[in-house]
Write a structure and sequence with these properties.
This protein is α/β, with parallel strands linked by helices. It is built from twelve helices and 15 strands. The chain is rod-shaped and about 150 Å long.
């Protein structure tokens, strides 16, 4: 093997850069697949907390965050069991029984604020003669949520929708607060005897209220303008459930008006019943839920430590493989140039084929000619060589005997022993 020439085909720095870029791209791909970041985004114009369209609630999230509240957008149903204020904004196609079961499971975990859907919206098409930003929607009409009919028992709720009647200069009222609705001709209200109103419409119907279900809710009662309830016989460990019939009280459409925004902030504060709770906006009912998988867990504590160690080990191995243990080698020629290399290759071939006995004859003849030349003999037969050797070195062995022993040798060690003896005789004569 020989060292590679200095002018290598590929620049080592370029190759290293390509390897690093490929490794980072592969790791980033795994991360985004595990984190579910392969879609176009959550600002899809839907009626949820990550949407900036008219029917979304991103403005409410930002307002509450600016007030210092701890906000979380939940993409997993496992986080809905935390002790916090849960704000549900399910769409028209949600499962009413699943929503009712979730509310029932949380009665002793934390308060729940349920915002009913009303608008049918779709993303603004690019053909419109306006510069629509990402998430903008066009309202395609309104309708009552069909899943509300699946509510039963203490959660049974009746919904009405239509224009407000008997307007007296305001559309909604809560204590001393009053204001207008974005679309007074299309208002969604609650007509339920078991619901205590918080925010009322101008015609006396309920825009937002909480269930009267034998729970002890002194903060909610005070906000509704009621006298404190007798705590005797009431469930003190139960949290209240507030239902907002018309989403235009809390959504981005509502945040365009200062009075509605202040009312929305107070309604969320009242829902926490005087406790400093974190606020969780659910996204799972809007189709934005994510399930845990191995890729997700690999980039989350405590497994992120093992993932980082594995990545560093891979980087070290790749670096050592790239640097190698010495200069790179190029494959040598199978048959090198020159007579000496040709002889060496022939000898190596003879060794590999285990035909050493074929070398004994040429070796004897070579020694014969060198000895004859050293003794100045015209003839190089065995008798002439033996007489001349006896005159020169009387105690030397016979050439004929040594050559015969080399011819008869077959095993490698026998051939070497006989060749050394013949070479020893030659050294005594050739000086």
């Amino acid at each position: 093997m020989t060292a590679a020439p200095a002018n290598a085909t590929f620049n080592p720095r370029v190759v290293l850069g390509m390897l690093l870029f490929g490794a980072l791209a592969f790791v980033a791909t795994l991360y985004f697949i595990g984190a579910g970041e392969t879609s176009s985004g959550e600002n899809d114009g839907g009626g949820h907390a990550a949407s900036r369209g008219l029917t979304g609630y991103a403005a409410l999230v930002e307002m509450l965050e600016s007030d210092g509240h701890e906000i979380a957008l939940s993409r997993s149903k496992a986080t809905l069991d935390d002790e916090s204020l849960l704000i549900l904004t399910p769409p028209h196609g949600a499962d009413g029984e699943e929503i009712a079961d979730l509310i029932d499971q949380r009665r002793h975990l934390g308060p729940t604020l349920l915002v009913l859907p009303k608008w049918y919206a779709f993303q603004a098409p690019a053909q419109l003669p306006v510069e629509a930003e990402e998430g903008w929607v066009i309202l395609g009409g309104a309708g009552k949520p069909g899943w509300i009919d699946q509510f039963a028992g203490q959660y049974a709720t009746e919904i009405e929708r239509g224009p407000l009647e008997g307007r007296q200069g305001f559309d909604w009222e809560w204590g001393s607060r009053r204001g207008a609705m974005p679309d007074p001709d299309n208002v969604q209200t609650i007509a339920n005897a078991t619901m205590i109103p918080l925010v009322s419409a101008s015609d006396g119907t309920i825009l937002a209220g909480y269930y009267d279900d034998e729970g002890y809710y002194p903060v909610l009662d005070e906000a509704a303008g009621l006298r404190p309830a007798d705590p005797e016989g009431l469930d003190h460990s139960r949290w209240g459930v507030i239902v907002v019939a018309d989403p235009d009280l809390l959504n981005n459409y509502a945040m365009a008006d200062r009075d509605r925004a202040l009312m929305a902030r107070e309604l969320v504060d009242i829902a926490m019943e005087g406790q400093n709770l974190s606020i969780v906006f659910d996204l799972t009912f809007n189709g934005l839920g994510r399930s845990k998988n191995l890729l997700t867990l690999a980039f989350e504590p405590p497994f992120i430590a093992a993932t980082l160690c594995l990545l560093m080990a891979m980087a070290v191995v790749a670096w050592r493989a790239f640097r190698r243990f010495g200069p790179p080698f190029a494959e040598a020629r199978a048959i090198a140039f020159g007579k000496r290399r040709l002889v060496a290759n022939s000898a190596a071939f003879t060794l590999r084929t285990r035909r050493l006995h074929l070398l004994t004859g040429p070796y004897v003849e070579g020694a014969r000619q060198r000895i004859a030349a050293a003794l100045h003999l015209r003839r190089a037969d065995d008798e002439t060589l033996d007489r001349a050797i006896a005159r020169r070195v009387p105690d030397a062995p016979s050439f004929a005997a040594l050559s015969a022993a080399l011819h008869e040798a077959r095993k490698p060690h026998e051939i070497l022993r006989a060749a050394r003896a013949l070479k020893s005789l030659e050294r005594k004569l050739v000086r």
